[in-house]
Design goal:
alpha/beta, Rossmann fold, 5 helices, 22% strand
C-alpha cells in the first residue's frame, strides 16, 4: 500500500463537508461517549490506510471541540486485532486533533487494583503481533520515533487531576501489557506478565499509542479495570460476560471522568508553536509523506 499525502475523499457521502481544524481533542472509545456532546454531527473520513472503524462524531464539550471515534465500530464489529489503528489516528489528525484520550477496558495484574479502578499507565509492554504496527512501513525513508515514554505527560497530568477530583478508585502509573487477543491470557502467561513488571493487561493500547507518536500527537491511555487477570484471581478465570457487566456498571462515572479530563487538557497549540515532546516526535526526520 502506498500512503498518499493527505486524506482522500470517502466514497460514501459525508453528512457534512469536511473542514480542517474541526476538532482539537480526540477520544477513541465506545459509542457511549457521544452522549456528552452538544451540536454533534457525524463525518465520514477516508485515509491512505483505508476507512477508520466508524464515522467520527464531532461536537462541543465545555467549549472544546471534540472528535469521538468508536474504536471497535458502533456495532462492535472489529475485534482488537482487526482494528485499523493507523486509519483511526490518521482520521483524527486530519480533522485537526492533536491530543487524544484513549479510554479502554483492562484486566488487573495487581490484586489491590480491583474492578472499577481507573489507572493512568505510564509505560506499555507490547506483546501484540501481526498488526499493522507503523504508518512508515514502506522501503525508503526510515523513520524511528522515540517511544521511551509512550504517553503524553500533560495528558496524564490532566487525567490524574480529574481522578483526584473524583470519587473513583484510581492509580497513576504502571505498565500496561498489551496482548494480541481476542482470547484472554492463560494463568501462566498472566503470572509471567506480572513477574515482568506488568500492572494491567489489555488488547487495544498497541499499536494505537505508537501510531499516535508516529503522527506527532499527544496520546493518553485511561484504563478501566474490569476484572482481575487469570494469574491473580482464584476463581474460574476471566469471562467475557464478567468484563461486559463490570464495564456497563462503571461507565457513567467513567464517562464523567473523561469529560472532566477533557476540560483539563492544555489549550490547543499550532504545530509550529507546540512544545510538548509528543508533538515534536518527527522533527528533523525525513518523512515519506506529509502528515495531514
Ligand atoms: Zn504531549
Amino acid at each position: 500500500m502506498t500512503a498518499q499525502p493527505g486524506p482522500a475523499e470517502s466514497d460514501d457521502q459525508p453528512t457534512e463537508p469536511l473542514r480542517r481544524d474541526d476538532a482539537e481533542i480526540g477520544v477513541i472509545g465506545g459509542s457511549g461517549f457521544y452522549s456528552f456532546l452538544t451540536d454533534a454531527h457525524r463525518v465520514a473520513v477516508m485515509t491512505p490506510f483505508g476507512p477508520p472503524s466508524d464515522d467520527v462524531v464531532l461536537g462541543d464539550l465545555h467549549g472544546r471541540r471534540v472528535a469521538f471515534l468508536a474504536r471497535h465500530g458502533h456495532d462492535h464489529r472489529f475485534p482488537p486485532h482487526q482494528v485499523n489503528y493507523r486509519a483511526n489516528l490518521w482520521a483524527l489528525r486530519s480533522l485537526g486533533v492533536r491530543q487524544v484520550l484513549s479510554p479502554c477496558a483492562v484486566g488487573s495484574l495487581r490484586p489491590e487494583l480491583g474492578p472499577g479502578t481507573v489507572v493512568v499507565p505510564d509505560q506499555v509492554i507490547d506483546r501484540t503481533w501481526g498488526r499493522a504496527h507503523t504508518v512508515y512501513d514502506e522501503v525508503g525513508a526510515v523513520v524511528h520515533v522515540s517511544f521511551a515514554d509512550p504517553y503524553c505527560a500533560r495528558g496524564r497530568a490532566a487525567v490524574a487531576q480529574a481522578l483526584a477530583d473524583s470519587d473513583l478508585p484510581y492509580a497513576v502509573g504502571g505498565a500496561l501489557v498489551v496482548i494480541n487477543g481476542p482470547r484472554f491470557s492463560t494463568r501462566a502467561e498472566s503470572q509471567w506478565h506480572q513477574a515482568a513488571g506488568g500492572t494491567l493487561v489489555g488488547m487495544t493500547a498497541m499499536p494505537e499509542a505508537a501510531i499516535a507518536r508516529e503522527l506527532a500527537m499527544c496520546f493518553t491511555t485511561v484504563a478501566l479495570v474490569t476484572d482481575l487477570d487469570a494469574g491473580v484471581e482464584h476463581g474460574d478465570g476471566v469471562t467475557h460476560d464478567q468484563v461486559v457487566a463490570t464495564f456497563a456498571s462503571a461507565m457513567p462515572p467513567f464517562k464523567a471522568l473523561i469529560g472532566a479530563a477533557i476540560q483539563g487538557l492544555p489549550a490547543a497549540e499550532s504545530d509550529s508553536a507546540a512544545e510538548c515532546a509528543c508533538r515534536r516526535a518527527v522533527d528533523g526526520l525525513t518523512l515519506p509523506f506529509a502528515l495531514p
